[in-house]
């Protein structure tokens, strides 16, 4: 009979490409991993790995087992989640990654509401750009990610992506700007503006640069900040503009410090997405939190 523990070790070694890397990820010794794999191969009567100087690769039998192993491990996690859902007890630690807007302005209240229902759960929230979050998901240092960036074609098969909300981006101005009091502008009006932007390595910046160039606009950039609060304060203090979703400036709008100006035709739309690495089964805690995200409207009315 197949042993789920051995299958988990097998799948980890296959993902990492070596016994030593698999052992490091599992926090066990390499000799223990080697022993478990020898026992698995002996029990099945099939060689699963081709051992080489630079690591291991799967044999034909290993590739066959890998597909079944992933499905079995996912099914086991699903069964655990289903049983846990019948109880109010859900405990452990869940690590979530989110891009700056979602991390600061959307998730804190959702996390606190989740913990009211499951007080034994610990949620660790990390903030980073899309590429950082995807790297952390691949390395199994996170279970869930919230991003607005786009995935590369090579990443689509590895990650499950669930669209949570369409997020409109607005031009943000301070009270000293000539557009203060305007409700909307044409995107061509941005050609003469001075921008405060996100860093060049962020997906948001790459996306915005591409949209502007497609509309014949090469932005005049006065500053680049990796912190949304810094962007807001700089815009409020001068006559530069920036592009941000409305939910990050709600408080400043109420206080009369910043204003959102819509763009005709809504050309600046992005999708807030929930992502996870499909090669790793979700824990019961991650599954419960992801269901919470899917069931509610994340954006303020």
Q: Main attributes?
A:
44% helix; 301 residues; D-Maltodextrin-Binding Protein, domain 2; Arc Repressor Mutant, subunit A; alpha/beta
Report on the architecture of this protein.
With 301 residues, this protein is of the alpha/beta class. Helix content is 44%, strand content 24%. It is built from 12 helices and 12 strands. It has helices spanning 4-16, 19-26, 30-44, 60-84, 100-105, 107-117, 130-138, 153-156, 203-214, 228-237, 250-255, 284-295; strands at 49-52, 55-58, 92-98, 121-127, 144-147, 159-174, 184-185, 194-197, 220-224, 242-245, 258-263, 269-277. Strands 3, 4, 5, 6, 7, 10, 11 and 12 form an 8-stranded mixed β-sheet that branches. Strands 1-2 form a two-stranded antiparallel sheet. The chain has a two-stranded parallel ribbon with strand order 8-9. Helix 1 packs across helix 2, helix 1 (4-16) packs across helix 3 (30-44) and helix 2 (19-26) crosses helix 3. It is elongated and about 75 Å long.
């Amino acid at each position: 009979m197949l042993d789920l523990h051995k299958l988990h070790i097998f799948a980890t070694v296959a993902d990492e490409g070596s016994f030593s890397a698999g052992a490091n990820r599992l926090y066990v010794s390499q000799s223990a991993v080697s022993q478990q794999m020898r026992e698995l191969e002996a029990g099945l009567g099939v060689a699963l790995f081709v051992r080489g100087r630079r690591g291991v690769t799967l044999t034909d039998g290993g590739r066959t087992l890998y597909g079944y192993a992933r499905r079995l491990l996912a099914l086991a996690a699903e069964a655990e989640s289903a049983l846990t859902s019948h109880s109010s007890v859900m405990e452990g630690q869940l690590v979530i990654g989110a891009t700056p807007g979602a991390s600061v302005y959307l998730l804190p209240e959702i996390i606190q509401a989740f913990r009211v229902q499951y007080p034994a759960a610990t949620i660790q929230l990390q903030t980073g750009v899309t590429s950082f979050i995807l790297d952390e998901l691949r390395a199994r240092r996170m279970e869930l990610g919230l991003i607005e960036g786009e995935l590369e074609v090579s990443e689509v098969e590895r990650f499950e992506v669930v669209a949570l909300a369409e997020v409109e981006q607005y031009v943000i101005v301070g009270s000293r700007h000539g557009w203060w009091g305007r409700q909307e502008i044409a995107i061509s009006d941005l050609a003469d503006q001075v921008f405060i932007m996100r860093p060049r390595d962020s997906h948001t910046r790459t996306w915005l640069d591409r949209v502007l160039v497609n509309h014949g606009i090469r932005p005049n950039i006065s500053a680049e900040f990796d912190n949304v609060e810094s962007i807001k304060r700089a815009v409020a203090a001068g006559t530069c503009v920036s592009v941000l979703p409305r939910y990050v400036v709600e408080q400043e709008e109420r206080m009369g410090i910043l204003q959102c100006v819509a763009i005709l035709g809504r050309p600046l739309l992005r999708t807030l997405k929930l992502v996870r690495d499909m090669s790793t089964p979700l824990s019961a805690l991650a599954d419960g939190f992801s269901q919470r995200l899917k069931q509610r409207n994340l954006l303020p009315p």
